[in-house]
Amino acid sequence: MTGTPARAAPSAGARARWRRGGTPSLPPLPPLLRLLIGTQLAFNIGFFAVLPFLAEHLGTAVGMAGWLVGLVLGLRTFSQQGLFVVGGALADRYGVRPVVLAGCALRIAGFAWLGWAESTWAVIGAVLLIGFAAALFSPAVESEVARQAVCWEEGGGGPRTRVLALFTVAGQAGAFVGPLLGALLLAVDFRTVCLAGAAVFVLVLAGHLRLLPQHIPGRAAAPAPGGARALLRDRRFLALCLAYGVYLLAYNQLYLALPLEVERAAGSQAPLAWLFALSSALVVTAQLPVTRWATARLDLRRSMAAGLLLISAGFAAVAATRPAAWTGGAALLPSAGLVVLLTLGQMLLAPAARAWVPDLAGEGRLGLYTGALSSVSGLVVLAGSALTGSLLEAGLPAAVPWLVLTALPAAAVALLPRHGPVRP
């Protein structure tokens, strides 16, 4: 595990408790973990208060053409996801605190700039700043959560996947609350929404200035340069990235293939809001029980494999019914099945993938590897989304695109490293 001199084996009693699925009263999380998990909640509240309303604002208030709106949104994604590896490497080199604080400051400036931006170049500059801010603080926070989760596990507190599942729940709760806050403030204007998002990050910045340690005990400094070359030669890690990228590509179909299917079945995309709410509710209510079940029965590789197979089954449900071309309320059942199975697959897969990274990262390289997991898998999504979009528009038989989407997660099981760590 990166950042600790040696691994302390969990006690036999702790191993037995985890295999039984845990105890009603696990030890409380240490203050640093509570701070970082709360950070994820606040990050997503501030971010999702603004993001869902950005495209409409750019198209109506700013008057951008549709292609330009798409370009701006794509640039934001690239400046964030594509540069995670940079933020992770900086966290390894300079520590978590300065990188998180810098990211918060840039996000505040970006949201404030976006609120007043009226020209195309001003909007592009603001969204690039907003994206790069996340590329700084997100991998720093995620890598430290993973490191602290391993320390908590090694101290007998409980499986690391429980901590990472709680981190996921906090993020999903923020993604649920943020749009509600933004919708309320949009009654004033979009500038107010942006200022509210900036205000959230002002609070986060102030909290971290006070509470985030300057030097986190046990965190190793990055070794000499060369980590990127070692990462690119690490076949096990790259295989994990590719498998995780296929999962993200499948998840991206909630925004690409699913809306098309919902509009075909229902005549509009109005039911999408309910399907997204269903996904959020599942994560918030079921993530921790699902993780507890998986921890007691599956190692990390099997948990990821089971998640991929559930996602594949979700696409298969749509593929099986698509040739019948049903319409109406009942025709939405396959789409609902896809959302449920994809979300359950996510709950098994995402915590396991992030729990695996500390075992693959070299000493002092956890930030780099955490960022690379997002950046490499983001490239998979970028390439795969273009191909998926082409399939959906190619005029093929109705079931063909969905069969391809069914096959991809199932095939990705073979990409998972064969000799991953086994849960103790």
Question: What is the CATH architecture assignment of the largest domain?
Answer: Up-down Bundle
Helicity range: over 70%
CATH superfamily of the largest domain: MFS general substrate transporter like domains
Task: Report Rg.
Answer: 21 Å
- The count of strands amounts to 0
Instruction: Please tell me the total number of domains.
Output: 2
Strand content: under 5%
Structural class comes to mainly alpha
Low-pLDDT runs: 1-24
Oligomerization: single chain
Note the run of SSEs as H and E: HHHHHHHHHHHHHHHHH
What is the distance, rounded to the nearest whole angstrom, between the alpha carbons of the first and last residues? 15 Å
For the report, how would you describe the main beta sheet?
Answer: none
Tertiary shape? globular
CATH topology of the largest domain: Growth Hormone, Chain: A
Number of helices: 17
The CATH class of the largest domain, by name, is Mainly Alpha
Determine the mean pLDDT.
84
Organism: Streptomyces cuspidosporus
InterPro entries: MFS, MFS_dom, MFS_trans_sf, MFS_Transporters
Region (Disordered): 1-23
Protein name: MFS transporter
